[in-house]
Amino acid sequence: VQLVESGGGLVQPGGSLRLSCAASGFTFSSYVMSWYRQAPGKEREWVAGISSSGGWRNYADSVKGRFAISRDNAKNTVYLQMNSLKPEDTAVYYCNNRRADSDYWGQGTQVTVSS
């Protein structure tokens, strides 16, 4: 299993970024996928999740209405569209594939929201 995030960077408050996570080594279309983030000095927190078909999506209260998770099963990729970014969204963002007996993470992509 390999998960590779991309799309992070430096953005001003109120700006937008789109993160991507390219998956390989497993049947991507069969699994729930999630995004997590970890800010400096804080524990990693769940941000959003999407079902295998994309029909169910859920968000942490802190990002609801600003972030949107989506997936393209033909491209084995999950996305996180982040709008109206705030300084408190600054963190390393991780893609996650969780199963009953294993937990897979990407290497993370840094998102910095600052003027």
Write up this protein:
This protein has no helices and eleven strands. It is globular, with a radius of gyration of 13 Å. The chain is an all-beta fold. The strands form two sheets. Strands 2, 4, 5, 6, 9, 10 and 11 form a seven-stranded mixed beta sheet that branches. Strands 1-3-8-7 form a four-stranded antiparallel beta sheet, with no helix packed on it. 0% of the residues lie in helices and 51% in strands. Strand 4 and strand 5 form a beta hairpin.
Pick out its properties.
115 residues; mainly beta; 7-stranded mixed sheet; 4-stranded antiparallel sheet; 11 strands; 0% helix; globular
Summarize the biggest pleated sheet.
7 strands, mixed
**Record field, number of beta strands:** 11
Helix content: under 10%
User: Ends: how far apart?
Assistant: 37 Å
Per DSSP, the total helix count is 0
Q: What's the rounded overall pLDDT mean?
A: 97
Low-pLDDT parts are none
Q: What is the H/E order?
A: EEEEEEEEEEE
List the topology elements.
Layout: E1 2-6, E2 9-11, E3 17-24, E4 33-38, E5 45-50, E6 57-59, E7 67-72, E8 77-82, E9 91-98, E10 103-105, E11 109-113
Parallel strand pairs: 2-11
Antiparallel strand pairs: 1-3, 3-8, 4-5, 4-9, 5-6, 7-8, 9-10, 9-11
